[in-house]
Please model this.
Amino acid sequence: MLRLSGITRRYGDVCALERLSFEVPDNRYVALLGASGSGKTTLLRLIAGFEEPDAGQVWLEGKRLDGVPTHERDVGFVFQNFALFPHLNVFDNVAYGLRHRARNPLGSASEIRDRTMAILDLVGLKGFERRAVGAISGGQRQRVALARTLVTEPRVVLLDEPLGALDANLRARMCEELRAIRERQGVTFLHVTGSETEALVMGDEVAVLAEGRIVQAARPAELFALPGNAAAARHLNAWNILSGRVRDGALLTGTGSLALPRPLPEGKPAQMAVRFDQIDICAPGQVPPGRDHFSARYVAGEFNGATALAFFQTDDGQLIQVTDHLSAPRLPVMTEGTDYALHFAPGAALVFEGAGA
Model:
């Protein structure tokens, strides 16, 4: 098990990570989701040993890693730009770590060949061993980088946005391949990404990094359906979040008063989250009984194939999104610049105490 305890990392006056604690179980695919600048790559670099924390500890299978040189940590790192050696072919890129690692480098040409060819077969690159890395596709280069890491048999593999440089179709295919490779190897993957879709697809568990800390870690379906706080909900890009203050058992927001699904302390700030696909639209004054609602002006629509997005703006300037699944469309035809009532079942809303960011 990889365990981070009270990790803090500062760059001058900027705190990238603050007292972060987190556990990554053995033999799991864990996706770390965070916005740009949230500290995702910093966290990986601390685990790998490229940087050291200002405070806190890093443990792997009961051994403390902070302060241990990078090459002695038994941690693999797959860089976002792949970091392949351009003057070496596919085989020699993958075999490099076996030949030149600091501990127990292999001198047997036959053993190097057998292990290198076995890992190339595992990642689907058998027959490409003599190709120049500049003569293969982006997805194949990504697999070379992964094979180069896996061939040394690390206990943990860190992946720094490994799909970011690939096109959409190739990214979707590589998601499936990475999961299959990890399962066959039985090694722990910690995969950082800024894409909520990628994190939910890839991870056996998804951890959300915000404001220098892990704000929630859960299985993908649980995280998507029940984010535990507004920061986690915001990172999923599926929830509208309305901020306000509790007044007389309701949340008083910039767009009106909304019923609270559970009691909250009077006068305190709070936030309400309603998922994009759980909001319906109707004309003002035609809200069905028992539905909570607020008003907003229709701004624009966006067609995405199987789904369509509708964008609204509230009186206080907040952008609201509504998703319509075209296999079962439910939204009416709308006119830009017109006000509508956005309504939802009271049980669809989640509320969180505290002020919004």
Observations:
- The radius of gyration is 24 Å.
- The longest strand covers residues 292-303.
- The mean pLDDT is 92.
